[in-house]
């Protein structure tokens, strides 16, 4: 596909969603929203974090070949549709996605220009953030069981960014994404 896909990957709780949202607002780049069969959590909103669908709806969409890629993790299905990617590329020329390493590899093959951004934080930090976010203990344990395997993927990414101080991480990442997108600023510009 002709267009630029910015792919966020990293361990759960590292801050992928937070950074993608913040940078998306600054640079006016939308995020492609995945479909999932997992239940919507109380704090989540349909169409914001995900599109929540049943397993049979997911199967039907898969049979109709609507997905550009699908992944199953811990019994939950996730997928991104071709039509959503095409629409965002037509409207904006680029989009963000939050993906597993497998999803990133598929997108790398399908898109002309991809930038893989690995958001990194240590195990203690991601654990604390998930507790604060209100994830239940089983979910945190499930996420942590994938931590080491996901960290191994950083060597395959274009950018590896540690996320501790949110403001400075967002600023550094914005600059690096602007370079990738070929956005230049007037030297006197404050932003
Ligand atoms: N390949 C792929 N991975 C996805 C997609 N949507 C989400 N993910 C990954 O699935 C993981 C689990 O999602 P999450 O919302 O945290 O569900 P939880 O594990 O139940 O808390 C995330 O860490 C993402 O990396 C998708 O459409 N494709
Ligand atoms: N640099 C940071 N400092 C402190 N808290 C952060 C930082 N980045 C993200 N968070 C918080 O940590 C939690 C996990 O971030 P989130 O973006 O949901 O992670 P992910 O999408 O990688 O699972 C959220 O509650 C978020 O507000």
Automatic annotation (TrEMBL):
Source taxon at top rank: Bacteria
GO MF: GMP kinase activity
InterPro entries in the cross-refs: GK/Ca_channel_bsu (IPR008145), Guanylate_kin-like_dom (IPR008144), Guanylate_kinase_CS (IPR020590), P-loop_NTPase (IPR027417)
SUPFAM superfamilies: P-loop containing nucleoside triphosphate hydrolases
EC nos: 2.7.4.8
Guanylate kinase-like domain location: 3-178
Main enzyme class: transferase
Keyword Isomerase included in the entry's annotation: no
SMART domains in UniProt: GuKc
Keywords carried by this UniProt record: Kinase, Transferase
Catalytic activity: GMP + ATP = GDP + ADP
Leader sequence segment: none
Family according to the record: Belongs to the guanylate kinase family.
Function: Essential for recycling GMP and indirectly, cGMP.
UniProt-recorded name of the protein: Guanylate kinase
Natural source organism: Caldalkalibacillus horti
Organismal lineage: Bacteria, Bacillati, Bacillota, Bacilli, Bacillales
